Amino acid sequence: MANTGVSMIDIQRELILSTIRSTTRGDVRPSFTLARAPLTLAYKKLIDNVVKEDDILNLNITNIERLEERRTTQRDMDAIYIITPRAHIVDCMMAEFEQRRYRGFFLIWTTLLPPPLKERIDRSQMAREQIRSFRTVHLDYHPQESHLITFKDPWSFPTLYHPECNNLVVRHLEDMAEKITGVCVALGEYPVIRYYRPRNPTHEASVLCSHLARFVQDKLDMYAQYNQDFPPQSNRPRGALYITDRSMDLIAPFVHEFTYQAMAFDLLPIIEGDKVTYRANVNEEDPDSEEKDMEISDKDKIWVENRHRHMKDTLDKLVGDFHKFIADNPQFTNQDAASTQGMQGLNQIKDMIAGLPQFQEMKEAYSLHLTMAQKCMEIFQKHKLPDLASVEQCLATGLDEDYRKAKNTADQLVRTLDEPDVTPSDRLRLIAMYVLFKDGILPSDLQRLLFHAQLPQPDGNVISNLDLLGARSSRQLKEKRDPPPPLFPPKAAPPINQEDYSLSRFNPAVQDMLEDHVRGTLSHDIFPFTKMSPEDMNMMQENTPAASLRSAKPTWAKTRLASVEPRQRVIVFMAGGATYSETRACYDVSNKTSRDIFLVTSHMVKPQLYLRQVGDLSQNRRSLRLPIDGPQPTAPKHLFEKPEPPKPAVPPPGTKPMPPGLPAGPKVNGPKPPTAQMGAINLNAPSSSSSSGKHKDEKDKEKKKKKLHLFGSKH
């Protein structure tokens, strides 16, 4: 995979660090307090995803804490809060102000604070007195890869498509629009916005993309209105944002793709939690070794280099690179003991020890991916995926291996369903693809197929529920129906030497959309603009958008250091979840053209999750257990606990208690005052006891005046 030179992970990391850096200004050492919103994105974990803790501590930060945890009051220190604008988080902050937990509060909200919550803070005199800074920095997204951003919100799918969730849709679209705006702001893009508008829609959700595109346009316009430096000056062509949803390509989540990443996430038990991990034993030659969770991320160069290769090419590359690595590092292989004798041998051992950590890490990385690839190929053979995929490709493309119209698909389907090694979920996926290919079948035929595949009748809900996403799953006897025109015309047959990839003929609709965008031939009817200037029209119609922009704009932004043509940034948002085949498609088009393409989505969809989520669309809403329908998070009770008053000092031994009501007099039998030591005390020195007297009171008053003046100068 080519290196496009820009990474959303790096952009978010620098955004976080620069925000903290500008807040500390290098002259204070505040604590760093993070708020985590339960049931949504965990901001501590989000920051951990892109920033090392040491990077934060090096910015004059003394410690990092979570808002919900018990913390000691430190009124001689300032605190920076990176917090999410939710009601219970505002409750937490009001408790912080009430307790006067810190000297000053620097609030950084990860997205815009809703007006009712902001008004609550604005009305609080305690808040006004203690807040030193109040700003919004858009961070409410999770860069999973350099060009893949998710919101980690699988609940988005039922919210958008479940019939009983209609009252949630507008608010959810507003929330997504805010996050998409944050991605655009982070990239420095004020893009031209286009959205998917299906032909002859039959489902209620057909208007989702148009509404979401309008919301994003409004929010970007407002941001540009209040931030005169946005967008920043750049010699890049103006970016493009495409708002699409799952209904644009219903078939992609069903198809088996045989590129490494898509195949691994489909077939292997990869865990997508705070980190993406796969449990494996990468040191099998060691009898004491155990399985452990291995992280799969952009930090793994072998993964980045191979994840979008076809599995055949991935295996060849992994095996070849592994043998080359061992051959290039003979000092790390088992050596004869005599070679390590004497001083020269000791030096060699030192060199081996010095290089061992890197070698071990590389060896584990190669072992991990060889293990994953091997497991994929075992499943590929065991469950008859070559035969299954041959039928899938005909159904998904409508063409056979010779790129002619597919025929006898029903016979191929039935023969494949008869294979005992084909898993039940793969049978259901194949039936769903057949129904989509036929643009609906008789309900009785669907029941026969399910019975023949030995699938339970409730699995038929997965098929019928596709109607809620724009499909037509059933038809009546003798009903005449014109087949819907394809969203994009079929591709021409590839060169003859592409035979090895006959099981990978299908490309997601996202890839066709992006290729037409690059060519400037994308339909304005199916992908209309939210608004557009004549200059934007020229950009979209030209095959080389950068050239058309240069002719339309002055060359003030052209830098002498630019050695390559500036790359236009294209952002694709897929509502309802995106597949790893669509991720691969975005990278492929990006590498082949002068574009940087970023895929943004609510969550990543694996085939098993897609089957379950589509099937759940016919369940009642209560059974979905949506977070919004459950108990809402509340501020921890301990934040509202009054601090314990200081305990009275224990009198020295021999001191008699004073009778109540008598004036204070000289102490009897007490220790003599240390007059010599008191004479040596510097009254201007700080003191930790009550002996500082009047001087300390005056100093506190002066400090308080200074605080209030500082606050007043900023508000």
Automatic annotation (TrEMBL):
Region of interest (Disordered), residue spans: 624-715
Gene3D superfamilies membership: 1.25.40.60, 3.40.50.1910, 3.40.50.2060, Syntaxin Binding Protein 1, Chain A, domain 2
InterPro entries the record matches: Sec-1-like_dom1, Sec-1-like_dom3a, Sec1-like, Sec1-like_dom2, Sec1-like_sf
Record's compositionally biased regions (Pro residues): 646-663
Compositional bias (Basic residues): 702-715
GO biological process, one term: vesicle-mediated transport
Family the UniProt entry places it in: Belongs to the STXBP/unc-18/SEC1 family.
Name used for this protein in its record: Sec1-like protein
